[in-house]
Amino acid sequence: MRIKRKIKTEQQKEKSRVEKEKMWEFYNYLWKSIKGERKCWNCEKRIWGENLSLYHDHLLPKELYPQFKYEEENMFFCCGDCHQNKTNGHPGEKHRKAIELAKQKFLYAK
Length: 110
What we know:
Elements (H helix, E strand, L loop, with lengths): L9 H24 L22 E3 L16 E3 L2 H8 L5 H15 L3
Antiparallel strand pairs: 1-2
């Protein structure tokens, strides 16, 4: 059985395009703010090449907590392997600690 996708309106397409552009501006800002060598904050593997979205992990997922998607303190700079491990539910030690700090700051703060 084939699942039919809902067709986006032109207004929805434009909103999506604008949101993607805004997110890339944020990622580029974060990329440029890293001084010196770019290394994964979890495993410390050096990150080479160009800025990719997979290097920017939202500690609190942007789909669940859209109000925090542009918060610098909700971001974790990591290599593709560490990002994938976190996405699959197995974050490294430093990544796990950063997630807990983000929860304390954004979710449990009064």
